[in-house]
Amino acid sequence: MTSMSRSVNPKSLRRLVLLAAAMLATTGGLIVLLLVLAGVFQPKVGSEQQSPTSTVGAVTGPVAEIRLVRRPRREAAVGTVQPVHEAAVASKLLARVVEVNAAAGQAVSEGDVLVRLDDADLRSRLEQAESAVRGTESRHERAKADYARAEKLVDNKVIPRAEFDQIVAEMKTSEAELRRTQQATDEARVLLNYATIRAPLTGIVVDKFVEPGDTASPGQVLLTLYEPDRMQLVATVRESLAQQLQVGDEIHARLDALGHECLATVREVVPEAEAASRSFTVKVTGPCPPGIYSGMFGRIFIPLADEQVLVVPREAVSHVGQLSLVDVVEDSGVRRRSVQLGRELPEGDEVLSGLRAGEKVVLPPTESPREDRP
Q1: Of 350, 233, 247, which is closest to residue 301 (Cα–Cα)?
Q2: What's the pTM?
Q3: Phi, psi at residue 122, to the nearest 5°?
Q4: Distance (Å, rounded) from C-alpha 259 to C-alpha 25?
Q5: What is the mean pLDDT of the chain?
Q6: How far apart, in Å, are the Cα atoms of 222 and each of 16, 153, 192, 208, 216?
Q7: N or C: which end of the chain has fewer CB within 10 A?
Q8: Is the pLDDT of residue 54 over 70?
Q9: Is residue 3's pLDDT more than 80?
Q10: CB half-sphere exposure, 240, CA atoms < 13 A
Q11: Domains, the chain
């Protein structure tokens, strides 16, 4: 038959069998290699501790009791250092800047000249006002003399009463004119003082925004400065905690960059929450360390209710790989137990699981002092 003539070639069949055997051998070799790397064929270090608890033996050292300790809790709120007093020095005139005596970071004292504006026209106006005052003073003196003479003449009925009334009116007019010119002089002097811009407080210049030759306009901020001795930490506090704070409360605050922690006083709780985060702005003040600057990162710590923490002495814990082990004293002796630890506290390590309050653990034996041999 023709179908029998189409039989499988023996050489092709052998080649397929050899290829399949090679693939099986390669796969088996990889599996054995992975098992060797995983340590399946090697004895485990501390194989007697593979289970959560294992028997160790009798008590061979001092013991300590697992106890609950009460610790205060607090929640941190992050904030930014800002000055309590910050001044934006602005111009009140439209004038050209002729001198700038301040730079960013420069310390200034109250009354120091920071910026000078062109005051030539203001000086001219002041001189005109002073000249007007001198003229009105002369006219006023003559009017007073006329009044003194007329007063005697009208008493003797030498001049009519109407002429005397006119002299009195002229004296009052000259007096009012003198007051007007004096006030105009005071106004010109005040405007001239506006051309010399002085520091309103003792502090540090944050930045300046003009240079000599620029034109300053009324209301334009020329520079800003703040008082470095009085800074505040402005923090964002969640709604439930902000309601517990009152103005005058003392809480702990910390500046991470300076490693400075102090007791700060709540100065202000802004009575409006941010719509997006439902949090309130709290401002606290405290002693300022050297090197503090506006914009630094800080934290405030809001006290919460105390917590009870289970602790184990740190020296009672031994570590094998990623396992934390303790020797627990039981009726039948000592059992090694695996525990899960949390924070490192001054009282010991926090126990999350594996131990109960009142249980006893074995501490490492203390080394006795060596005796000197004769």
Answers
A1: 233
A2: 0.56
A3: -70, -40
A4: 63
A5: 83
A6: 90, 64, 18, 6, 8
A7: C
A8: no
A9: no
A10: 3
A11: 48-72+307-362 (2.40.420.20), 76-85+227-303 (2.40.30.170), 119-194 (1.10.287)
